Amino acid sequence: MTILRSVEELKAIYDGVSEASVVKVTASLTPAYRQMIEASPFVALATIGPEGMDCSPRGDDGSVVRVESPTRLALPDWRGNNRIDSLLNIVRDPRVALMFLVPGSNTAMRVNGKAVVSVDPDLLASFEMEGKHPRSVVLIEIDEVYFQCARALIRSQLWNPQRYADPKSLPTPGDLLQAAKADFDKETYDRQWPERAAKTMW
Prior knowledge:
By secondary structure, the chain is an alpha+beta fold. It has helices at 7-12, 19-23, 31-38, 85-90, 121-125, 151-156, 173-180, 186-199, and strands at 42-49, 52-59, 66-69, 72-77, 95-101, 108-118, 136-148.
């Protein structure tokens, strides 16, 4: 197996960066970048901390983040599994990376920046959904923002319904849990999960 172990070896097998790949990077949201990000109901949030890295899916009913300014995004932390891996990382290392997906679009948006975790009461209240507030809000200061080449989403045919997996052909959440812990009660978990999720969405 041939392993590349230097920057020089790596660059030797790739062509140079195109002009478009360079000029698309901005330090704040352009009107078009803002439009793309506000159209996204889903983002993957990557963080890093002393124990390692984490990448967490975040979704909302509508725009997954709120644009506070051309250089600041607000991401509410809605109900989840309470592992708080992303938040634990952010309070110790502010570096974050986000990838936004827009259903039906092959253009993904990327943001790199620094974040803090806020529990300001007025900020939490501003995200009220069905009478509930997020526990915290992640405020992201943008260092750079740009769009991702569409080839990955085109290759994957991510939005092609004919390529969607049949859920019945995949392990259930209970199956996955039992694979990690042999005596886990997967039948009860799978039976109760849909109602529990519906009651704890916000």
